[in-house]
Amino acid sequence: MKKEDLPNILPVFPLSNFIIFPRTTVPLNIFEPRYIQMIDQSMKSNRFIGMVQPKKTGELKKPDLHDIGCAGKITSFNETEDGRYLIILSGVCRFKIIKEQNSENLFRECEVKYDDFFNDLEEKSHEIKFSDLKLIFQNLKSLFKKQGYEINWKEVEKQSLDQTINTLSMASPFSLEEKQVLLESKDLNIRKEKLEEILNTYILDNYNNKTLQ
User: Fold this and answer.
1) CB 14 within 8 A of CB 54
2) Crossing angle, helix 161-171 and helix 188-212, to 10 degrees?
3) With a threshold of 0.85, does the pTM exceed it?
4) Which pairs from 40-48 meet CB under 8 Å and 24+ separation?
5) Pair type for strands 25-30 and 85-100
6) Where would you tag: which of 46, 80, 112, 202 has the fewest CB atoms within 10 A of its CB?
7) Are 109 and 95 in contact (CB under 8 A)?
């Protein structure tokens, strides 16, 4: 994917506690009329949509949006008998929202720029080793277990290092704000550090809760 292939106007899909990263894929089940319309239009044009987290401010039907999201391309599309769309979205590049467009559509559209995140388009190897992730894995496993989350760790461990960190950042039972911090982390090393910091607060909370009883 080249820089010039990235669209400057993106339909945006605000979802709480949900982030995607470049080179990760997520399945989405689309059933709301406005997002059915969004997918219809996207499929007719460049197949791009922007995933972005809403803030807790603004109107209920139209919350304010976080500035940073990630553009994804629809790489698989199926329609169910009851009119839902099952799509696979592949993350391409993070973006910053410049301004929201006035649009006749049911869904929201934003003018975006990618300048701060062109690194997302490059394949690169990272200094981090899997052994460095051992503690993160241990802490995450206990957190997932406690919160009743199921994850296939064998599958996760087969992925490349950046995919592993990004998948864990996406799948973790963290708050919207914590996920936003991970999404906005400039590179993988910073994201790994932030992941550790967030996990430490959960582990610490747990420890404090135990000692208080």
Assistant:
1) yes
2) 40
3) yes
4) 41/11, 41/105, 42/11, 42/74, 43/74, 43/77, 45/7, 46/7, 46/73, 47/73, 47/74, 47/75, 48/6, 48/7, 48/10, 48/11, 48/72, 48/73, 48/74, 48/92
5) antiparallel
6) 80
7) no
What are the structure tokens assigned to 189, written together? 């090393």
> Which run of H or E residues covers position 167?
helix 161-171
Distance CA 197, CA 138 (A): 14
Please count the other Cβ atoms lying within 10 Å of the Cβ belonging to residue 169: 24
Q: How many helices (H) and strands (E) does the chain have?
A: 6, 8
Domain limits of the chain? 3-121, 130-212
Please state, in angstroms and rounded to a whole number, the distance separating the CA atoms of residues 110 and 74.
18
Per-residue pLDDT of the chain (213 residues; tens, 9 = 90+): 788 899 999 999 999 999 999 999 999 999 999 999 999 999 999 999 999 999 989 888 889 999 999 999 999 999 999 999 999 999 999 999 999 999 899 999 999 999 999 999 987 766 677 677 777 778 887 887 787 777 777 777 777 778 888 888 898 888 999 999 999 998 888 998 999 899 888 877 665 555 444
